[in-house]
Each structure stands twice: as structure tokens, then as C-alpha cells.
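I had to read the description of the data format several times before I understood it. For illustration, here is how one protein appears when written out as sequence plus C-alpha cells:
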Amino acid sequence: MDTAIKDISVVQKTGKLSRKLSILVLFIFLSVVAGSVIYHFVSKQVIEDTRRIIKKNDRNNKLAEISARIAVLGVMGDELITKGDEQILEAVTAESNMLMNEINRYIETEQSEGYLHAKKNDEIKSMLKARENLNELMRFIWAAYERKDAAAMDAYHKKVMYYLIEIDKNFLEIKRVHDEYIAGFQSSLSHRLSNLMKLYLLLIIGGAVCIGVLRYLLKKFVEDPIAVLASATTRFAEGKLDERISITSDDELGMLARSFNTMAESIQERETRLATCCNDVEKLVECRTRELHDALNKLKSTQTELIESEKRSTVGQIAAGVTHTIRNPLNSISINLQLINKCLNVGKIDTEEMKNYVETLLGEVKRINHLVEEFVRSSRTPAPNMIKGNIMELLKASVDFVREEARAKGVSMILKSDGNIPDIYFDFGQMKDVFLNVIRNGIQAIKNGKGYVEISVSPIFEPGSQTKNHIAIHISDDGCGIRAEDMSKIFTPFFTTKSDGIGLGLVNSQQIVLAHGGNITCQSTAGSGTTFSIILPCE
């Protein structure tokens, strides 16, 4: 553990592998950035040269357009001199003004650009001469128009041709300057495009070299050591505990290999100790197994004795319960027999009195017989005869059976249902005993002569569906209730709080409900009434 912590601390302090990779990635990044900056700068110059060439070509086209319009203007001037039409004069004047404006704008544009060709002044001078020649041409045309000298038409034609030729020479000079300018920039553009292509190829080659170097370094310093470590780990997992890794570097992967060797040595040492301990454990297990076997035999013997003791105790409890319950009727029988014997001894026999004694004896015998029947029933409850029927009809019959008894005590009987109650399977006789027993307990729990017993029936649905899977019957009263300390004993045989009870009614009811696959529970508060809940399955 201390060795592993030490290796981790060393890795945190060195970080050699991460520094190597970081430096290499930084170098590649800076190379890409530098190449991108140079590429951007050269591309920008190429775009600027191209833009200037396009601009000069546009100006050449503009000069050609102006030259053609001046030639047309010369033809219109000749026609004006020949015909002397005022409409032609207006057209010539408008065209000359537009041409003059075009030349002026051209000159202003050339003068505002300070980065143009070195012979820009020659270009501007030629354009100024062309403007001057155009002015001279227009003055000559107007002068000829005013004189209207038909004899001198040949001289006029020659003069117009002279000015047109001079203007054309001026434009040719400007075109020559433009051509030199374009040729220079075309040469520069070709050179820069060549440099741009060389830079592009250099970046591709440099990127390929950087990728190759990075791939080689990753393989040498990362992939190969990891592959060796993975292979050693696999062999070690297969059980070759003497597997070790040769350490060839002092970086993080070297530290990892050293940690693997340390771990392998520690595990191999522990396996050796475990093999030694296994033999000792096997011997100890054999010894403990024999001891457990002996203890198990003793436990079985003790369990048998406990079962027999429990049986004897249970029989004793039952006998005590039966004895306690039968004692009162036996005492009554004994007292009445003594009274009959006394009457017989004294010879005074009162028929009516003797009849009362006999009726009392018969009642106590009947009581003892009822006790024996209840006892036998509680010990041998027969299996229910399940028949599908309507539980509401059985409850109505049970309520009708005890209605007179309840009315005599001033108890109201209430029967209600919640929803459509489906038919279920039950034993009619057994379930009637259950209902009568619980309902009578509720009637007897009402001491003040006024109260109620309410029976409510409702279906219970499966969670998340509309399927009815159980029926709930709640039998409630507002009687004296059950004390908290007696709640855990109400289903115990022979436990009762009634003076004339034997404590088997609820025991029998619970056995019947459980045999039907249901459950019976009780909720009660002393002085506030009691509710018995009987849950029966629909199927």
C-alpha cells in the first residue's frame, strides 16, 4: 500500500509522458497557426492584386467606350456641319457634355488613388490632353456650324479627323500604361500564386510529417507499453502469477509497470500464504463439522423433548380451560342435587319445586353439552364446501335471524353495500356461523340498551385496474369496545370477557375465514365501539 502511494506521488511530480505529448501537440499547433497566418497573408495579397487587375480592365473597357462615343460624336459633328440641323446640334451638345463629365470623373478617380502605377502621371497627362483635344474638336464643330461655308467642307473633314486621331492617340497612351500596370500585377500575381501553391504543399507535407511523428511517438511511448501491460495482465489473470513486466522508461507508463510488478509480487505472496492457510482451514472445518454433527443430534433430541413438553403444556391449558368453564355448571348441578337429596331425606316433596330443580339440572347439562360441542368444533373444523353464491343474500339472512334479538335490546341493524357486489365462492353454513357470531358479539357489546350494528360490503379492486379481486365485509358497533391489553388475546382459545362465554366463537370464526382463503381483523377503542373486517377472495 505504501509503495503504491509512493508511485502515485512520483507520477504526480514527474508527468514526463504528459509533458512530451503536450510539447509535441503545442509544436503541431504552432506550426498550423503559423502556416495559416502566412497562407492568409499571401491569399490576401493575391486577392488584392486580382482586384486591381480587374479594376484596370474595367477602366480599359471604359476608355474603349469613351473612344467609341467620341468617334460617333465626330460623325454627328460632320453631319451637323453638312445639314445644319438644330436637333443634331442639341444631340451633339448633350453627348459632348456627357463625354466631358466621364473624362473628368476618370481623371478625379486616377488622382485620388495613391497606390497606382509609377507612370500614373503620364496617364493623367494623356487624359488631360484628350480632354483638351475634345474641347478643341467641339469648338471647331461649333465654329464650322456658325459659318456654314460649304466650299471648305473638305478642310473641315480633315480637321475633325485630326482631332479624332489625336484623342485616339491619347487613349492608346493611357491603354499602354494600363497594360504595363496589368502585366506587372499579373506577373506578381503568378509569382504569389506559385508561392501560395508551394506553401499549401508545404503545409500538407508538414502536416503529414507531424502526424507520422505523432503516430510513431504514440506507438512507442503509449500503445506498445499499454499492449505489453494488457498482455501481462491477461496472463496474470489466467493464473501465471510469476508474470512480470520489464521497465524501459521512467514516465507514467513505467510507473504503472512498476506498480503492476509490485502488485503481482504481493498477490503471489498472498496466494502462497492462502494455500498454506487452506490446509489449516480444511482441518478446522472437518473438526467443526464433527462438532456440529454432534450438536445437531443433541438439538434434535432437545427439539423432540420440547415438542412433547409443548404438547403436554397445551393439553394442560386446554384441560384447565375446559375445567374452568365446566366448573360453574357442575357446581350448579351439585347444589341442585343436594337440594333434591335434602328434600328426599326429610320426606317433603314439592312437585313444583322438584320440577324447577330438574329443569335447572337439564339446563346445566345442556350448557355442558354445548361447551363440549364448541370444543370439538374448534379442534376439528371441517373443510368448507365452496359454492358460488351471493354474499349479500347470506348477510341479509343473518341480519333477519338476529333482528328480534337486537330489537329486544334496543339495537338497530343496518346493512348496506357499496357498488355491484360479485358472486363469490363460500360455504353457506360456515360463513353464516361467522357472521352470526360477530353480529351477536356486537349486539352484546351494547350495554345501555340503545345503539346500532352496521354491516357494510364493498369490492376491492386490483391496483391500476377495474378488476374486483376481494370482497370486504365490515361489521361495526358503538358498544363498549375492547381494552388495548385484550386486543392481542381475542383470537386465543378460551379467552372471553363475557360472563357466559367460553372463548371459542372468534377462534372458530378465524379458522373458517382462513379456510376460505381470507382474513379477519379487528379494530377497537375502549368505550368507542368495535369494527371487525372480513376479507374474502372473489375467486
User: Anything to note?
Assistant: Strands lie at 387-389, 411-417, 424-426, 451-461, 468-477, 519-525, 529-537. The first helix runs from residue 2 to 14.
